[in-house]
Amino acid sequence: MLSRPITGMGAVASTGRGVGTLFDNLCRGITGRAELRGFDRTRFRAQHAYEVDDRPEAGEDVPARATALLIDAIAQAAADAGLGEDLSGIPILIGTGLRELRSLELWWREGTGLDDTGLHFGTALRERFDADVTHTFSNACSASLYALALGSDLLAEEGDHAPGTVIVAGVDVLTESMYGLLERVHPTPPDRVRPFDRDRTGVLMGDGAAAVVLSRETGGRRAHALLRSVAVNCDAFHVTAPSPEGIAKAMRTAYDMAGVKPKDIDLVMLHGTGTLLNDEAEATAMADALGDAASGPLMTAIKSMTGHTSGASGLMGLVMGVTALNEGRVPPTVGLEQPVQEAEEFRFVTGDAASASMNVAQLNAFGFGGINAVAIVEATA
C-alpha cells in the first residue's frame, strides 16, 4: 500500500496559469475554448480549440511551446515544494503524447529552425534546472499517470542511490496533424467538448502541462495529499476503441493497491473526452467497478473547460482533484445537460461548483491501444 506525500504541484492550461488560478476558474465554469489561434482555420472543419494564449499573434505559431509549458509547470511544483531552482540529482519523469511534434511540423512546413536536441525535453530541463536525470514516456493520453506510477516505484527503491524526491510531469500542445486527424473521425465537426452528454459531437484538443513533486518524507512541510496507488494496464483491445472491461480492471486494481473500497471514493475526476465511444465505455467501467456505490461519489470532467490535454490530462486531473479535496469544492462539467444512459445514476457536478467534505479521490486516464491508468489520492487532514 502506497503512501507517497505530494509536496508540490504546478499547472498551466487554457483556463489559467497556476494551481489556484486554474482551479478557481474551473470552479467558475470558465472555459479556454476559442477560435483556433496557431494555424490556418480554413484547412479544417472544426474551428475551435482550448489553447494557451501565449503566441505573439493569432495565426502565427512558434516552436518549443510544449517545452515552455513543461518548464513552467515544473518550476511551479518545485517552488511549491521548496526545492529551489537547482534540481540536479532529482529524477524528472515526463509523460507526453506528442512531445515536440509541433516544432517538427513548423520546421517541415515553414522552415523554422530545428535543433534535434530541442525535441528532447531533457536538454531544456538541464539548461533551466541543471536536471541531470530525466526520462520521457509517450503512453498516449494516460502518459502522465504512467509516469506517476514509475515515479512512485522509484521512491520504493532501496540503497544509497535511491532518490528521496521525484518530480513527475505531463505536457502536450496542439499539433496540426493530430487536430486534423481527430476532427475528421467525427461525423459532425466538434465545436466544444461536452463529456457524457447525449448530444456530444467529439473531442477538441487543449494545451496544458502539470507537475507534482513526490517525496519519501515531507521534510516538515504539509503535504497536499497522499498518493495511495497508481494502477496501470494495457488491455490491447483495439487501436482506438476502449475496453470497458480493461478500464474496470485498472480501477479495481487501484482500489486493491490503495486499500480502499468503492464506497470510500468521494470524488472521481473522469477522463471524459466527449468522444462517441470513450464516454460510454468509461461510464460502463465506472458502474462495474463501483457496483452498489456507483451513485455515491461526486464526478466531474474538466476537459469540458480545458479541452483534451492528451498526455498531460491525467496529472491535470490529479492536481485539480487534490485541490478539490483540500478546498471542499468540485468544478462542474460544463455543457453536460442530458447524461448518456450508462451514466444516468452518477452524481455529476453540473451548473455551479459543488461544496462537499471529501477524503479520497480517483483520477482516470485512458489512451489509444488500451493503455489505462487510475490513481487514488487521499487528503492529509
UniProtKB/TrEMBL annotation:
Ranges where the Ketosynthase family 3 (KS3) domain occurs: 1-379
Gene3D superfamilies to which the protein is assigned, alphabetical: 3.40.47.10
Pfam family, one: ketoacyl-synt
Top-rank taxon, per record: Bacteria
Keywords of the record: Transferase
Family classification: Belongs to the thiolase-like superfamily. Beta-ketoacyl-ACP synthases family.
Name listed for the protein in its UniProt record: Beta-ketoacyl-[acyl-carrier-protein] synthase family protein
UniProt source species: Streptomyces incanus
Lineage: Bacteria, Bacillati, Actinomycetota, Actinomycetes, Kitasatosporales
